[in-house]
Specification:
Chain lengths: 372, 372
């Protein structure tokens, strides 16, 4: 469980917090900075595992809370674990469910022992403890497991944020103590709301424990962009450079560029996949809505020059027709393009960090979008 | 427009009406008996053109009525025709829209001139004439175009069926007269309800005209299975063996076996694709409903021994989970399996006809299903 084995830093320019590196995990290696498409229910919505590989996804995120409720951990276990169940051979990170309990469950009661909640599916009662959540993820066979944490909303009273930090640290200690498999990595989640001092306290308390990596949780919950980046900076400044830093649930392409610049190594977010299903496609010059009338007879691909399957094969006009006719194929085609866009963006950041041209890359990134 | 060029008979056993053959069309050849997956709106629901090729689809069916309303023929034309629009390079047959006007339009008024109807999408008024329907299909670039016909329901009064036969013949004559492209084939549609004499009259009237092939329309509209087969036999006995015979909108695997046995060469039906989206998968021993609790932990594929992508990669347990979670991927995976099943069934019939073992094949087909 030596974190040096989990993460290797490749290039880390003098005086800059950003770097490239590699995660060494049970199911393979992952080059960082990386973005994980979200497959909440053991499926990245609308695409197959093979398509994910083709677009260059190195690792995906799935969700212990969701899989625990449906199909149930025993079912996944009976099929040989999560990788075998869903036919994905590369690494998987599972979120613990802390955030889902916070955002989805219809009732939740948090005590020092754990969290009691009602399923968002059928209202049935369940309890998650730090130990149970580690056990679930060990059973799933997640390459990276996340500790159960207490995620507060925004805004939240100081006392609640402070209590969430205390409980999160308490649970982190019990998570470490309960883990049985050392071939799977375990990450802590830093809380602390939008309070720098509480973020610092949370990070420092968790750093006393031998975690394989550190996530920044409780962001992207409605706070201003600048405040989010301030919290990222605070946490990154405390987590040693030898350890991977993971910003959970973020975000838009601009968020990724800014967080990488501040030293974040890992991301996950539903934006590329969810927006695809809403007809939104990312391009270097900004996003387009495929429903727009201007694309009715447009023979060009979503993004000229893009090498994804969708752009190689289909026109905006056809995609617009499929979207307006609600043909199932369109959700897949837009999802493929958007994930490919995200994978290329991460790859471009890695390449430019290694070449020492990250700041030029960033200027060009914004220049293309005509933002600044 | 010599129909001998359109269709070649390969093997036609003495004393049996069934045969193998080949359709020679603008976008390639099609071995018969063949089944066309249905892509009503320029997309076979849930699958890509590449997946259709992989499962062995030789030709697909699309629909002039639907494409005329959405996205509009001008849009498809601006994108280079239907093949280019949807990215499918093999042959396409388009239905004329007669059946859709009959079954979907909210109002329709049939005169000798044509049919006035209101769109099922927005209630707007439109008129289809035989000439307009040929022009639409020539613009789409369909390898096989279908004449506008008058399809009656079941049961229907004798006078209505007789009038439908008369009008269908009248329109067929005008269709032939109006066609401009001789690189696209034009098929007539035999009507006549469930009346042998009217079927005979319809077929004979249409055979006076130089069509490239003959379809049997107005079946699978609610009549008993035996009655359908009786009508098929009547029409097949009249259409010369040198011409392709197409049974429209049929059907279940048993229907295909029985109609091939009676000399039908071509089929289309939404059953394999629609049933897939309802969780139903075809196998040699019958169909299964993937939702069933018995599959909860079943690690086997839908059909052991099946070589389709779905069966090679995923378990019944995973497919059941996806279906219950309404994950979009499952509609694709079940559709791939079902189309593959239909393609294999047609291939098995072709092979067995050529080997002279069709009757043995048929007995085994039913034996596997434990039906008789």
């Amino acid at each position: 469980m030596n974190s040096n084995q989990t993460f290797e830093v490749f290039v880390s320019p003098e005086g800059a917090p950003y770097r490239t590196g590699q995660l060494n995990l049970l199911h393979g290696t992952v080059k960082t900075p990386c973005f994980m498409p979200v497959g909440t229910l053991a499926s990245v919505k609308a695409v197959s595992p093979d398509e994910l590989e083709e677009v260059g996804a190195q690792m995906i995120l799935s969700n212990a809370y969701h899989l625990y409720l449906r199909p149930g951990v025993e079912v996944v276990d009976a099929l040989g674990g999560l990788h075998s169940f869903m036919g994905w051979t590369r690494p998987i990170l599972t979120d613990s469910g802390g955030f889902q309990v916070y955002s989805l469950a219809s009732m939740r009661k948090i005590t020092e022992e754990g969290v009691l909640f009602r399923s968002h599916l059928d209202g049935s009662y369940h309890e998650f403890t730090p130990e149970k959540v580690v056990a679930i993820q060990e059973s799933l066979g997640s390459d990276i497991m996340m500790c159960l944490d207490w995620c507060v909303g925004y805004p939240a009273p100081y006392e609640e944020v402070e209590e969430a930090v205390r409980i999160t640290s308490l649970w982190a200690r019990r998570s470490i103590a309960s883990r049985k498999r050392d071939d799977l990595k375990l990450f802590a989640i830093v809380q602390g709301g939008m309070d720098r001092a509480l973020r610092k306290r949370s990070a420092e308390e968790l750093l006393e424990l031998p975690f394989d990596g550190y996530a920044i949780g409780g962001l992207s919950v409605g706070e201003p962009h600048e405040l989010m980046l301030e919290m990222v900076e605070e946490v990154v400044s405390i987590v040693p450079r030898s350890l991977p830093r993971y910003l959970m649930g973020v975000g838009m392409p601009e968020d990724l560029v800014e967080a990488v610049r501040r030293g974040v190594d890992m991301f996950d977010c539903v934006i590329p996949t969810r927006n695809a299903r809403n007809g939104m496609a990312f391009t270097a010059t900004g996003s387009i809505n495929i429903k727009n009338a201007q694309f009715e007879r447009d023979p060009s691909p979503i993004e000229p020059g893009c090498h994804c399957y969708t752009c190689k094969r289909f026109s905006r006009a056809y995609l617009r027709h499929l979207y307006k006719a609600r043909e199932l194929l369109v959700y897949r085609l837009l999802t493929i393009h958007n994930i490919y866009y995200y994978m290329r963006l991460m790859e471009a950041m890695r390449t430019n960090i290694e070449r020492g041209t990250f700041e030029e890359f960033r200027r060009e990134f914004y220049g293309m979008r005509q933002v600044s």
